[in-house]
């Protein structure tokens, strides 16, 4: 289906829980957040019904996210159910990977083909400081298990590492992460920090343009685009580098996605307060609610770090990125 600005919507991001085993400084308050009660979460059947209705409107790709999706009990079963919906051509997941090692093979067998792992540092102490409670060794074990399960083994099943750029926190590690893309068949994606939720009022210097990556690694040569990422490669690279300029270069004109929160609300835009509830809806009523949300997509967001933070009142862990 096309939205009011002619953009074709084919991508649905499903947040399956707002719960997380980490408390990343830019995503959640130190004390955590009041979580949805289990009965407020959409059930696996309801989530699958949302996916089915979305396919009738043209959605072909689903990403399972959270909170931490692996913190939702039985999420591998949900992935199997979503992968089996007729019309779904691609099923992806974004995870912090700290609980991935034991389930990586099952996840792949369930139909998940593309995995994005969030990793903002390779320094154990810094990892603890950024995630507040996480252990780097657990995330690295998860990434190893993902490789062993076949993620990253082909163009159809890539493994991507999401690195959120934070000025004064982790930008010094950019060359180390670019090295990772040189050695391993992964796409390392440098993401500009978006001023929302916890980090909305952070000082201006935390928000750096993805240009810092090109300044630090001039050997990178642009090879094209992939979704919202500008893609780069250096000589002899096994993998590649992606820049996601969510703030400095808006990509709203190519936006093809809608999001569903863990408590069953469709967000037409990540950065708008508008939401449409789909709780308790089935069949055509559900399709109409999704279509209404698609038609409510704004032309663009108006983010500006330090000046205009995101208009969404929600923290990122409720929306899923
Ligand atoms: N817990 C999972 C994880 O961390 O991968 C999935 C949910 S998390 C909210 C999804 C993605 O959003 C992560 O890659 C995280 O780094 C990113 N993220 C969270 N807050 C952000 C912000 N303010 N700006 C940019 N990216 C953000
Ligand atoms: Fe959890 Fe992901 Fe948010 Fe970190 S970014 S607190 S891992 S939901």
Helix and strand arrangement:
Layout: E1 11-15, H1 44-56, E2 61-65, H2 75-83, E3 90-95, H3 104-110, E4 114-118, H4 124-131, H5 136-148, E5 159-165, H6 174-183, E6 187-192, H7 211-216, E7 221-226, E8 229-233, E9 240-244, E10 257-260, E11 265-267, E12 276-277, H8 283-295, H9 316-319
Parallel strand pairs: 1-2, 1-10, 2-3, 3-4, 4-5, 5-6, 6-9
Antiparallel strand pairs: 7-8, 8-9, 10-11, 11-12
Residues 20, 22-24, 27-28, 66-68, 96, 118, 316-317 line the site of iron/sulfur cluster.
Overall geometry comes to: globular
Oligomer: single chain
Q: State the share of residues found in helices, binned by percent.
A: 25-40%
Number of helices: 9
Q: What is the CATH architecture descriptor? A: Alpha-Beta Barrel
Provide the CATH top-level class: Alpha Beta
Global Rg: 18 Å
CATH superfamily: Aldolase class I
Can you summarize the main beta sheet? 12 strands, mixed
Strand content: 15-25%
By DSSP, the count of extended strands is: 12
Low-confidence stretches: none
Strands of the biggest beta sheet: in what spatial order? Answer: 7-8-9-6-5-4-3-2-1-10-11-12
């Amino acid at each position: 289906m096309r939205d009011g600005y002619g953009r074709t919507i084919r991508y649905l991001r499903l947040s399956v829980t707002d719960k997380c085993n980490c408390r990343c400084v830019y995503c959640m308050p130190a004390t955590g957040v009041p979580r949805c009660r289990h009965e407020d979460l959409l059930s696996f059947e309801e989530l699958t019904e949302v996916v089915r209705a979305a396919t009738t409107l043209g959605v072909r790709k689903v990403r399972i996210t959270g909170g931490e999706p692996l913190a939702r009990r039985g999420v591998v079963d949900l992935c199997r159910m979503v992968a089996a919906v007729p019309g779904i051509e691609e099923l992806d997941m974004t995870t912090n990977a700290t609980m991935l090692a034991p389930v990586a093979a099952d996840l792949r067998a369930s139909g998940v083909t593309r995995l994005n792992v969030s990793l903002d540092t390779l320094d154990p102490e810094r990892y603890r400081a950024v995630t507040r409670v996480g252990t780097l060794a657990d995330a690295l074990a998860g990434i190893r298990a993902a490789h062993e399960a076949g993620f990253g083994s082909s163009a159809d099943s890539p493994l991507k590492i999401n690195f959120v750029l934070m000025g004064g926190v982790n930008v010094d590690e950019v060359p180390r992460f670019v090295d990772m893309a040189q050695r391993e068949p992964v796409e390392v994606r440098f993401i500009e920090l978006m001023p929302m939720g916890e980090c909305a009022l952070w000082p201006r210097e935390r928000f750096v343009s993805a240009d810092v990556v090109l300044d630090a690694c001039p050997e990178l040569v642009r090879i094209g685009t992939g979704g919202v990422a500008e893609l780069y490669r250096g000589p002899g690279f096994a993998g590649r580098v992606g820049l996601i300029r969510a703030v400095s270069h808006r990509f709203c004109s190519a936006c093809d996605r809608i999001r569903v929160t863990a408590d069953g609300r469709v967000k037409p835009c990540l950065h708008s307060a508008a939401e449409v509830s789909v709780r308790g809806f089935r069949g055509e009523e559900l399709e109409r609610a999704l279509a209404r949300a698609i038609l409510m997509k704004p032309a663009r967001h108006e983010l500006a770090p330090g000046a205009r933070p995101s208009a969404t009142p929600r923290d990122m862990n409720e929306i899923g990125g």
